[in-house]
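Quick one before lunch.
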Amino acid sequence: MLTVENLNLHYGAAQALRGVSLTAPMGKITCVLGRNGVGKSSLLRAITGQHPVSAGTIAFEGAVLNGMAPFNRARHGIGYVPQGREIFPLLSVKENLETGFAPLARKDRSIPDDIFSLFPILETMLSRRGGDLSGGQQQQLAIGRAMVTRPKILVLDEPTEGIQPSIIKDIGRAIRYLRDSTGMAILLVEQYLDFCRELADHVYIMDRGEIVHEGGAETLDTVEARRHLTV
Ligand SMILES: Nc1ncnc2c1ncn2[C@@H]1O[C@H](COP(=O)(O)OP(=O)(O)OP(=O)(O)O)[C@@H](O)[C@H]1O
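Model of the adenosine-5'-triphosphate complex:
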């Protein structure tokens, strides 16, 4: 389980996270929703070690991650699919996947077959450059690259952003498969309400750097939840 307690995060004098606490249990999909700029990406940057926190604790399966470099967090089982995907445009699809080998012991450096069962297009495009793929294909590649690291928790930042509906369906199916087949934890940040309502076991809503709502996916339709999500 991932446990985040009382997290504060600053950019200079500006505070982006205020006392954020949440858990993401193994075998469950946890969604964090919120409008633009409320701190969702900052929360994931804190968890993956891309930005230091000013206060609070981040722990995964008994290990405290605070102060640990992103590379070592990957070794502890944190897989990250960043916003905007961050595919290497000049590397081939195969080479992009192989960048996921970095935190692995030599004997584990292989590409798991289920990546190609989930996203068959990646297998047919193995020698194409990452930059030649469509946005949806790049999103599938970013998820595949994170899967190569054999994560115990997959952390995804707005995986549906700018993606066509058919590929959103494939991504939803892949996330469910990963939860059910491997029992990994999934922590997903989103603005797309319907996607979260269908997938989530548990939801949190953020507003202005704070968690303002928590509950089952069905609670997203309450007046109180909607108040924090509508512009
Ligand atoms: N590198 C940065 N330097 C200064 N301020 C930042 C930086 N990154 C984010 N912020 C500010 O921190 C706040 C939270 O931003 P964050 O990106 O975490 O929100 P978000 O909910 O993920 O939004 P989006 O959906 O647009 O990505 C915003 O006010 C944003 O302007």
